Amino acid sequence: MTPMEGRLRTRAVRLGPRSLAALCLVSAVGVAGFGWPLFADPSSQVAAHAQDAPWLFAGLLVLLVAVVMATISESGLGPKAVAMLGVLAATGAALRPIGAGTAGIEPMFFLMVLSGRVLGPGFGFVLGSVTMFSSALLTGGVGPWLPFQMLAMGWFTMGAGLLPGPDRLRGRGELALLAAYGFCAAFAYGTVMNLAGWPFMGALASNVAFDPHADVSANLARFLAYCLATSLGWDLGRAVVTVVLTLALGATLLKALRRATRRAAFETPVTFEPR
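The structure assignment produced for this chain is given below.
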């Protein structure tokens, strides 16, 4: 079939060995940063963990650069692809303040889902992290929580790039898959971010507060009660908004993202499919 008889299909950027190694390393650092208070010795000063955020942030930036460099070198993408990442990050950062403080109305999440699907997991992780960093600068939300937000959003966007059928699934089936992922991942994002701050909120009621002397199962039960009591409504609002925007605008935005990616990735092979 000739190009005039078909239409181009853009593939998500694949993970090579170096990209995969860099992502595994940064994810391992993130898991340790989020979860170590649950396994810390009761005599340790868990509250001092909040002072480690600048070091985590500095290490995260270095690892993000490593992910970008590894992905570019293994995929053949050029400066235009990196520029497109910057445009998407700026757009996501501009969308975040819309509805801020109003029942989880956060439209940036649907953009991250669609972008991660098109760009793939490596660039998706970087896009999510850089978007959150840019948003913090825009809204003045820079603080000890920022590196944890960057990691969580990076995982959120990367997950969309890991969904099955990036080369074959299109149309309503793809939108349904992305909407389902966005719904579940919105709750996962909120849960992970709760874990980042919950161990250090000593003023909470005793039945939901972190207890350094309790075992992991007991603390997880307390954490579940904390999530249900404090963030369930917000996470539900985020999930619903993500689903609605994905179904309403997803088809158009996916086409635009794939067209832009195709023009930026000159060395990326393309395939054709029947109309």
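Interim note for the steering committee: The two ends are 11 Å apart (CA to CA). The chain has a mean pLDDT of 78.
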